[in-house]
Amino acid sequence: MNEASTHASNMNMRFPLYGVLTAIGLAFALAINGRLEKLDAADAPEAAPIVSERDLRFDDMPNGDIGIFDASTGTRIDTIAPGQDNFMRGMVRALVRERRKASIGRDAPFRLTAHSDGHLLLTDPATGEVLDLGSFGSENIGDFARLLPPVAAVKAADAQAVAGRAS
Which residue from 50, 57, 73, 136 has the least number of CB within 10 angstroms? Predict the structure, then answer.
């Protein structure tokens, strides 16, 4: 084979590769666009009546635990040991990271809100960040639902499970 035919053969192989890469890129772009549209719709749960809410404070403990406190009473609700409840740790760390970016202190509480339609929202009133915890799966919503008063936690988890099955 001469050099010209080898070059032409390589060019012929590149076109299908470019087509596949373009299709994959387009699929990612559409998926991201769809996800962003759903994030814009995250304000919709606010319209549903609030079943229960609790202001929370998450404090790093000297032994690596995270203490979870009711912000209004100072009562410890729960403790997360290192290596446990990684979903909850990740969500809290994401909100704390946003506070650091905005140079906001740790004193302001976070708000956990259960809505009658089953949505469970973790809000940082200091930054305006809102996480719809149900969008991360019904198993993960239970991690936070247990921080609400018992009756509200059960209602939120049950409503989210029903909503998850309907999707």
Answer: 73
Cα-to-chain-centroid distance, residue 156 = 16
Please state the pTM of the whole predicted model: 0.61
Query: Residue 109: in which H helix or E strand, if any?
Result: none
**pLDDT tens across 41-83, in order?**
444 444 688 888 999 999 888 888 889 999 999 999 999 888 8
Distance CA 155, CA 52 (A): 10
Per the model's pLDDT, the better-predicted residue between 77 and 157 turns out to be 77
